[in-house]
Amino acid sequence: MTTVSPTPTPAHVSTEALRAEFAPLFRRVRQGAVERERSRELPFLVVEELKQTGFTALRVPLEFGGRGVGLSEFAALLVDLAAADSNVAHLLRGHIAFLERLLLRPPGGHRDQWLRRIGAGALIGNAASERNELTEITTRLEERGGRWTVTGTKYYTTGSIYADWISLSAVRGETRHSVLVDASHHGVRVADDWDGFGQQLTASGGLTLAEVPVDPQDIRAFEPEDPHAGFGVGLFQVILLLVAAGVAQSAVEDAVDYVRPRRRTFAHRGELAPREEDVVQTVVGEVAAKAHAARLIALGQVAALDAYARKAADGAREGTPEAVASLAEESGQLAREVFQAQLVVLELVQRATTEIFEVGGASATSTSRSLDRHWRNARTIASHNPAKYRARAVGEYLLTGEFALWGGKGPAGGPAVQEAQDAQEAPEGQAGPAGNAGRGDADHGRHL
């Protein structure tokens, strides 16, 4: 694919200007999306172009090699990328979450080092989950003679096959940690064995680690009282909602492209072009409305996360117990709002990707058109963090005042919190493992 040099971002660049800038790239991505899926061609070249054009570093501040684009502006671009190829947008999920948690931290040597790496094009993968019957994590973090290594097997490692670095979970004794490893190390093996019927090119399969070295500065213990836990869980979910909104947008575009040139209708024996038939027009209008609503709702949740991140930066500077408590409360409220948005957005997108088939007869099901990929992708995305659990969590809070980010009772803890924390490396000045015990991840759907 063609390589384009990143364009410096002026202050207060508009969303419209950014969308116009990246539109040619996204068109190229879209042109090859169907064929890539048919031939199971992993989009390495697409990912490389996203890095070369600076897309993966848009959120990095200017002084570290990025463009300092706002989270809301970046989210609008992510929906457009997902409309071009939902696999590509989805595989960036761990990278985006890692960077956003990094940006919450105050300036410091370790944080700044990682910002420079990402600003220079480094891509971060995610490997929190394992295929175990129970929720334990068996990947081990070990130290021998001052040398730290990690050994184990992961699954649902979305984006890791494309990554330069991988953020993953491991345990030492009874304590769970987040660590970062160099994806190019000979002890790292990422397999393309993801067999889901949707999002097939996210490469969300297996990962094995054999005594892979870890920098002590890149080891972080799980923090059950992390005030930003709700932000992290909400962010991981919102990324999926943005991708789902892109799927719906793509379904609308494909439905329109399918209808416009057709001459044969179901009910009128060809007397009326389908594009002029009232039922077809109604279906397209209804599907477009669902896609539009999904996009607006998802972007609205991003705006709330963006506002929280700005406030969190001020709270970190203040550092008082009151400021931390306020952030924790607001972070939990953010998660609840995202859970509610999840219930609506995913239903809208799944309905939209089903209803597009009403614009045509049996020909709409032809594998040559691949219209089914939109439903398969939407259904796979919706299987993450099952919505029924989210509905129960919100209902429990409204009725009892209790709120769990994932399972159980109480305001914090559990697999979803730990997934969010796996996207953040050691706090400044903390080298090596320490902290409280945490449990593993319960379900692959939270990590795909």
**Tally of extended strands?**
8
End-to-end separation in angstroms reads 27 Å
In the CATH hierarchy, the architecture of the largest domain is Up-down Bundle
CATH topology of the largest domain: Butyryl-CoA Dehydrogenase, subunit A, domain 3
If you had to describe this structure to a student in words, what would you say it looks like?
The chain folds into three domains: 15-122, Orthogonal Bundle (Butyryl-Coa Dehydrogenase, subunit A, domain 1), CATH 1.10.540.10; 127-223 and 425-446, Butyryl-CoA Dehydrogenase, subunit A, domain 2; 229-400, Butyryl-CoA Dehydrogenase, subunit A, domain 3. 48% of the residues lie in helices and 10% in strands. The chain is built from 13 helices and eight strands. It has helices at 15-31, 33-39, 44-52, 71-84, 86-91, 93-104, 109-119, 229-259, 278-318, 321-355, 372-382, 387-400, 415-421; strands at 124-127, 140-144, 147-154, 165-172, 175-182, 188-190, 207-214, 219-221. The strands form two sheets. The chain has a four-stranded mixed sheet, covered by helices on one side. A hairpin with a 2-residue loop joins strand 2 and strand 3. The longest helix has 41 residues, at 278-318. Residues 1-8, 408-418 and 421-448 have low confidence and may be disordered.
How would you briefly describe this protein structure?
This protein is α+β, with helices and mostly antiparallel strands. The chain is built from 13 helices and 8 strands. 48% of the residues lie in helices and 10% in strands.
